[in-house]
Amino acid sequence: MQQIGYRILNDIVWEKPAPAPNLGCRCFTHSTEILLWATKATKGSRERHIFNYETMKAENGGKQMKNVWRIPPPGKEEKRLGKHPTQKPLALIARCLRAATNEEDLVVDPFSGSGSTGIAALTLGRRFVGFEQDEGYAMLAARKLNRVIRSQIPVVDGPAQGSPSLFDHA
Question: DSSP 3-state assignment of 124?
Fold first, then answer.
C-alpha cells in the first residue's frame, strides 16, 4: 500500500470470540484478523481523512476507542440467505464505516462477496457501489441488498432502528 502512495493510519485487530477450531491441531487457533486503515492524503496536507472521533468515543462509553475490537463472527441471521467463506460481520463493517465515512458518502467495495459492506453502507445512509467477479456471490449480494432496500430501513446515527438483526453486536 505504501508503495502505491497510501499512508497507513492504524492497524485494527479484530478479535473473534469463540473462533472456529484448528482441526489440524498443528498450530494455534486463528482468532484474529488485521484491518489496515490508510489514506492517500499526505501528512500535513490540506486534504484530510475522515475520522469520526466523537462517534467512536461515544460508542466506547466515553473513552477513546482502542484498536482491538472484540466482535463475534457473522451469526446465523447474517448467513440466512447465503454465506461467503471470508464474510465479515455487519457490526465490524458498520463500525469501520461509522468511523471513517459520513452520511451520503460513497462506499466502494471491489470485492463484494456476499454484500455485507453494501448492507452496512445502505443501512447507515451511505451510497454504495460493489463489484464481484463470481456470478454466484454477485447474485447472493444482490438478493441481500434488495432485501435491505425493500425493507426501507430507517437511517439514524449508528445502528439501524427496528432492525436489530443487522447490527446485533454493533
Answer: coil
> How far apart (Å, rounded) are the C-alpha atoms in residues 73 and 15?
9
Tell the residue number behind the cell numbers 471491489, with chain if given.
Answer: 110
**Bridge partner list, 35:** 12
Quickly tell me which residue has 457473522 as its cell: 74
Let me know how long the chain is: 170
- Helices 135-151 and 116-123, axial angle in degrees (round to 10): 20
Q: Look at the chain and report how many structural domains it folds into.
A: 1
With a CB cutoff of 8 Å and minimum separation 6, the contacts of 20 are 29, 30
Grid cell for residue 61? 462509553
Q: Assess if residue 162 is contained within a domain.
A: no
- Residues 81 and 130: their CA atoms lie apart, in Å, by 18
Containing structural domain, residue 116: 2-151
Torsion sign (Cα): 82, 85, 90, 91: positive
CA distance 24 to 44: 48
What's the pTM value of the predicted model, to 2 decimals? 0.85
pLDDT at res. 168:
38
Predicted confidence (pLDDT) at residue 47 exceeds the cutoff of 90? no
